[in-house]
């Protein structure tokens, strides 16, 4: 029996929500303190499901769903929460920087696959859509972080420099995602080649 193509996305969602529940109700643990996990428990699942729901509302078909892209869009939320669960943000100095780069690469690559950015013409529009979209999402993320826990928290003194660095890393991750999308588009067979294939 074949595993449904949506299984990885479902597992990512379940693993994220399970950790969010632990973090929300175990606030006495130091890795969860002051990081707005009550808000994350509400917003992370909503953000994870936003792109899949919009895709299904627009396309109204399940067989053609770009599950690889949808799973990639959801994965950064799991990685973020897992980093908190394992206390990596407070114990590994470079973890936050790595995550901003990697998660934006995953997020932008996933959105690129879902939206078919590799087929966008001219090429400069593809770059604007991918890198510009990633930079915009990085900005919105930083605004969300500031609103939920930085403005009244202990990180306010270093927030300016950290925010700038995070936005640069997110944009760099989106640039790598563009390169991957271009490579995937070159490797994909053309419609004619697919038709002639045995």
TrEMBL record:
This is Uncharacterized protein. It comes from the Bacteria. InterPro entries: YjdF-like. Keywords: Membrane, Transmembrane, Transmembrane helix. It comes from Kineococcus rhizosphaerae. The chain crosses the membrane at residues 42-58, 65-86, 98-117, 124-144, 164-185.
């Amino acid at each position: 029996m074949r595993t449904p193509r949506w299984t990885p996305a479902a597992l990512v969602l379940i693993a994220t929500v399970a950790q969010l529940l632990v973090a929300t109700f175990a606030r006495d643990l130091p890795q969860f303190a002051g990081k707005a996990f009550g808000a994350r428990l509400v917003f992370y699942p909503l953000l994870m499901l936003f792109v899949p729901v919009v895709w299904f509302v627009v396309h109204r078909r399940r067989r053609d769903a770009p599950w690889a892209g949808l799973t990639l869009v959801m994965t950064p939320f799991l990685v973020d929460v897992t980093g908190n669960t394992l206390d990596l943000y407070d114990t590994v100095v470079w973890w936050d920087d790595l995550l901003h780069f990697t998660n934006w690469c995953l997020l932008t690559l996933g959105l690129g696959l879902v939206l078919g950015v590799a087929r966008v013409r001219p090429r400069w529009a593809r770059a604007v859509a991918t890198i510009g979209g990633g930079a915009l999402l990085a900005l919105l993320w930083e605004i969300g972080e500031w609103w939920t826990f930085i403005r009244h928290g202990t990180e306010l003194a270093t927030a300016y420099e950290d925010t700038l660095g995070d936005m640069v890393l997110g944009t760099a991750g989106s640039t790598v995602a563009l390169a991957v999308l271009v490579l995937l588009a070159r490797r994909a067979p053309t419609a004619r080649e697919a038709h002639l294939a045995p």
